[in-house]
Amino acid sequence: MEIFLSKFRNLSGFDIKSIRKINTPNEFKDFVCENLKEASVCFMMSLYIGNGEKSMEIFDALVERKVKNLETVIVLDKNRGKRNSEILNVIKDKNLEDFFYFYDFKKYYMLPAKIRELLYVYHPKVYIFDSNVILTGANLHDTYFSNRIDRYFVVESEKFADYLKNEMFYKILPSLGNYTKLLDNSSFVVEILTKTYILMFDNRQEEEILRKILLEDFQDIFLSTAYLNFPETYFDLFNYKNISIVTAGPECNTFDLNNKNEKYIVQLYSLSAYKTLDRLNNMQYYEFGRKDTTFHFKGLWAFSNGFALTVIGSTNFNLRSNVRDEERNFLIVTKDEKLIQIYKEEIKFMLENSRKVELEELKNRKPSLLSKISYHLFHRYF
């Protein structure tokens, strides 16, 4: 493990003594609400927030924080976060404006909001409560609190929490006034103090991270994405690897098959899956199909003798994540047997709720002509 970690000297790394998993969307919501009520300091970053019944529990807890005058910072993507005008009314009515920051990281102000959202969004997710950090791909919305399946790791580390506040919040919000430029952390792997290490990286570093992982002689590699659409360079990375890929089946895609517009987007991903499997002959392809759920269980897992790793965060490992949106992801490398078992249980959960799909079945789905045309015109946008 130490030799493997030495490949990542350009990243800031943190030895972690306490990490655990939240299992369900409802547990995720409860954890957020409970910590909003109890934590002295709260920093949350999400693509957007909802105003449904479950999401209003978040707002109720925020009102309590306002009364207690507790430090609270919430960053949302400006375009996606303001799409629903009712959210802005809720924030105003509850006098929570000073908690919320709507961030537009590319600032193409001349373009309409919907066009800007098509071109890019600020996509990172992280939830910090004092020294507890939730790493996840989930947003603060009712769907993510009910039936949208995601991953959630709770890391307890004051040093890690302070680092994330500095690099993910203070750095982009000068008005907070607390940003400190950190020194290079290139010597972090000289001594491994614990069994688990976490490293943060962004979408500009993702390809190189994957390359270093895939150059290692891992016995089993699994990758999951809610939206399968690899960048061209990833085909070269995966081409000679025995890798298993899990994505949403048509009925579990976050886009609605019953919506006349969104059903074409679902067809786009089936077409992308066909093109992917056609090029990656060694790939084992699975589609998640758990009834009454949607699939947002994104990540990468790799297992070797003595240690294992996972990637968790906002990326979908696709073209959009790679070149359009801003992402933050976390590589968790461990030789802790209990954490390795959690990784294995995640794989088991996915495969038990998925079925293997062959190339011929994807070919027989026969997407509409409109979907084929849309794929060639817009595949860089999804």
Automatic annotation (TrEMBL):
It is found in: Mitochondrion. It catalyses: a CDP-1,2-diacyl-sn-glycerol + sn-glycerol 3-phosphate = a 1,2-diacyl-sn-glycero-3-phospho-(1'-sn-glycero-3'-phosphate) + CMP + H(+). It is an enzyme of class 2 (transferase). InterPro entries: PGS1 (IPR016270), PLD-like_dom (IPR025202), PLipase_D/transphosphatidylase (IPR001736). One of its GO terms (biological process) is cardiolipin biosynthetic process. Keywords: ATP-binding, Lipid biosynthesis, Lipid metabolism, Mitochondrion, Nucleotide-binding, Phospholipid biosynthesis, Phospholipid metabolism, Repeat, Transferase. The keyword Repeat applies. GO terms for cellular component: mitochondrion. Gene3D superfamilies: Endonuclease Chain A (3.30.870.10). The keyword Lipid metabolism applies. Residues 118-144 form the PLD phosphodiesterase domain. Pathway: Phospholipid metabolism; phosphatidylglycerol biosynthesis; phosphatidylglycerol from CDP-diacylglycerol: step 1/2. Belongs to the CDP-alcohol phosphatidyltransferase class-II family. Functions in the biosynthesis of the anionic phospholipids phosphatidylglycerol and cardiolipin. This is CDP-diacylglycerol--glycerol-3-phosphate 3-phosphatidyltransferase. It comes from Hamiltosporidium tvaerminnensis. The lineage of its organism: Eukaryota, Fungi, Fungi incertae sedis, Microsporidia, Dubosqiidae.
